[in-house]
Write a structure and sequence with these properties.
The complex is a heterotrimer of chains A (228), B (246) and C (224). Chain A is mostly helical. Chain A is 77% helix and 0% strand. Classes of the chains: A mainly alpha (228), B alpha/beta (246), C mainly alpha (224).
């Protein structure tokens, strides 16, 4: 077991890679999800339908086939190479945007009609209502389940190992091979993921308590769902 | 009062951790008696009922119901529970069953009676609690008073030898309390044996054959209701009655 | 861009797709059933009077929900031979998927149990019901009602998650896409076909759930 310590720097570096990949995907997914949520709550029904199809599609298709398509399919189709990193970021972000859009939509809808009406009646424009009235209230509802979305992205980022990207899982598998089998490195992997994910979920729970207003609780699992 | 007692409590002690809830309760109930238990909240009145049918175990003393020793964890407890009907403050109707199904369940499942016979009896019971039109409603569709009357019918369906009411009207809207009390009055007139924990002092005085005043886990007074109300023997009882008359 | 979308190119592989779809479905249905059993046990553990048992239940849930399924699969797949058990790809994938899904299932069932008010247990006990009678007539119908909808979501989640079984060499829909795509270089077509299979599976379950739910729970919810 002492020999395993040699691999510690490798694991630390790989953990950094996993965090970087998952954060980037979350960030892009959050922007995308926000835009889709705006479409979902739009007054024009074709926009609402498009947004709904987008979310439903990505929630009924496994991310792994999106990943395969991005990595193997896009180069063949469009004639340029896609690195494992780009493919993984792209696939993770697509999936995250579908999940985020549901979270953001729940946030926007949690702000009652009365708030809109009161603000519009006082002469504010749509954009001003969004910025001064809806956003601050919606943020409290959005923030806690976003943590759930991130945890999903973090765990899903392990799939990047399948297309050969050297993040945490791939590194664990490599270490296992150099050691000639055994599952010590795999347990180490599980432990690192657990510490990251559980730590973040504890922060999320604290956030939820912090933002709990008058019995308004949000159900993270119901919105985010999914196993990874 | 020459009948043998149906229920006997001898020096019953109930503790939750280090807190003593019942502190040496002795009480004997004869058939057809209507014993109303009154007293400040938190003095163990409800716990007393719950010990009688073994929903709580006891740490000292003995409870006997129709000669059977009541032990919460013994096999014999089932036979005791089958002969005692209990009505809860929060009704506790089964939300996934209709009113009729609520009443029929235990006789069919626990007592193993024939479904047809039970249904006939259940319909008669709905007549008695004046709820025949609501027989197929689900609990969520009934008002509190209606739910409580279904709960009474449910308790009666098993032909119990003793009925226990645990603050049956405390969770009700004022306008539906009367309906439930009227049904309880009918049962009293029929000669049922009843153990009633209540805050309705007027009901206790009118209908009860005995009033038991409890305070801090002890029975402080035990007398005829009118007598106790007119001449409470202890200072504590005097204070309690004057406080609730407001 | 000289790539033309021609579905005909994947026609020769459709026979394999049927078998692959059957594999995805078999894997998912079995995983749901097994995870239901494990999840129920864990949910009951979390209500135990013994602190150690409660902790063990909670720990199981947290570990499963906070580690990637892929890592669980690898651990099962590689660990079994190391302790002298030979598992086929299918068995390893099924076990890993079930163990992971059980973590989520336990929470669903726990929520269902919490939703049954304490008064229900008391009323049933006071009526002289045995544990078995109480479970069958009072607890199960009420828990089932609460967990019915999340159970459907979980089923869909398991179908999507079963795609990871391709990583331990189970020949289901995702691995069909990967192999056929690699052999024919028609990744776009295989992607579309695989995606359609998953969407059809998921939406069928969704619709069936709604329809069956309407049949099962016809009683009105509203207070008059």
């Amino acid at each position: 077991m002492t020999g395993s310590l040699v691999f510690l720097p490798l694991f630390i570096k790989a953990t950094g890679t996993t965090i970087w990949l998952s954060w980037l995907a979350l960030l892009i997914g959050a922007v995308g999800g926000f835009l889709i949520a705006l479409l979902r709550t739009s007054r024009l029904w074709p926009l609402r339908v498009i947004a709904l199809l987008y979310t439903e599609a990505f929630r009924s298709v496994p991310i792994l086939i999106v990943l395969f398509f991005a990595y193997f399919g896009v180069p063949v189709m469009l004639g340029f190479d896609v690195s494992p990193f780009v493919a993984a970021t792209f696939a993770l972000a697509l999936h995250a945007s579908a999940n985020m859009s549901e979270v953001v939509r729940a946030g926007i809808e949690s702000v009652g009609r009365g708030q809109w009406e009161a603000a519009l009646a006082s002469g504010m424009r749509m954009r001003e209502v969004m910025r001064h009235i809806v956003a601050p209230q919606a943020l409290r509802v959005i923030l806690p389940p976003s943590v759930g979305v991130y945890i999903t992205v973090l765990k899903e980022s392990s799939l990047a190992s399948i297309i050969g990207y050297f993040e945490l899982t791939r590194t664990g598998l490599l270490v296992r091979e150099t050691q000639g089998g055994g599952f010590g490195p795999l347990l180490a992997l599980a432990a690192i993921y657990f510490l990251l994910s559980y730590g973040i979920s504890l922060c999320g729970a604290a956030l939820e308590r912090h933002y709990a207003i008058g019995g308004a609780t949000t159900s993270t699992d119901a919105v985010v769902g999914g196993m990874a | 009062m020459s009948d043998a007692p149906i229920l006997e409590l001898a020096d019953v002690v109930k503790r939750f951790g280090s807190r003593t809830i019942l502190d040496g309760i002795s009480l004997s109930v004869a058939p057809r008696e209507i014993v109303c238990i009154v007293g400040p909240s938190g003095t163990g009145k409800s716990t007393l009922l719950r010990c009688v049918n073994g929903l709580e175990d006891i740490q000292g003393g003995e409870i006997r119901f129709e000669q059977t020793r009541v032990e919460a964890r013994a096999k014999s407890i089932k036979a005791v529970r089958m002969r005692i009907g209990m009505i809860f403050q929060q009704f506790n109707l089964y939300p996934h069953l209709t009113a009729l199904q609520n009443v029929m369940l235990a006789p069919v499942v626990v007592h193993g009676e024939d479904r047809k016979i039970v249904e006939e009896r259940a319909r008669a019971l709905f007549e008695k609690v004046r709820l025949s039109p609501r027989i197929n409603a689900y609990p969520a569709q009934l008002s509190g008073g209606e739910q409580q009357r279904v709960a009474i019918a449910r308790a009666l369906a098993a032909n119990p030898h003793l009925l226990m009411f645990d603050e049956a009207t405390s969770a009700l809207d004022p306008e539906t309390v009367g309906d439930v009390l009227a049904v309880m009055r009918d049962l009293a007139v029929e000669g049922r044996t009843m153990l009633v924990v209540t805050h309705e002092i007027r009901f206790a005085a009118d209908v009860g054959t005995r009033m038991v005043f409890m305070d801090q886990g002890k029975i402080v007074e035990d007398a005829n209701p009118r007598e106790m109300l007119a001449h409470p023997k202890t200072e504590r009882a005097r204070q309690f009655f004057s406080s609730i008359r407001g | 861009m000289n790539y033309t979308f021609t579905l005909r190119t994947v026609f020769p592989y459709l026979g394999g797709l049927v078998a692959a779809a059957e594999m995805t479905l078999t894997l998912s249905v079995l995983a749901i059933l097994i995870s239901l059993v494990i999840g129920a046990a864990v949910a009951v553990m979390r209500r135990s009077r013994l602190r150690v048992v409660r902790f063990a239940g909670a720990a199981y849930v947290e570990v499963m929900r906070n580690t990637p399924l892929l890592v669980t699969l690898y651990i099962v797949y590689f660990a079994a031979p190391a302790i002298g058990i030979r598992l086929s790809s299918f068995t390893a994938a099924l076990l890993g998927l079930s163990l992971n899904a059980a973590g989520y299932m336990a929470e669903i069932i726990r929520a269902g149990l919490i939703a049954v008010p304490g008064g229900q247990f008391e009323a049933a006990t006071a009526q002289g019901m045995t544990m078995g009678q109480m479970f069958r007539h009072i607890i199960f119908p009420q828990v089932f009602r609460t967990i019915y909808a999340p159970l459907g979501n979980q089923f869909i989640a398991v179908i999507l998650a079963s795609s990871l079984a391709s990583a331990v060499a189970v020949e289901e829909v995702t691995s069909w896409m990967e192999t056929v795509g690699a052999n024919s270089f028609r990744f776009f077509e295989t992607f579309v076909v695989a995606a359609v299979v998953y969407v059809v599976l998921c939406q069928t379950i969704n619709l069936a759930r709604l329809q069956i739910g309407r049949m099962l729970f016809r009683q009105p919810e509203a207070r008059r």
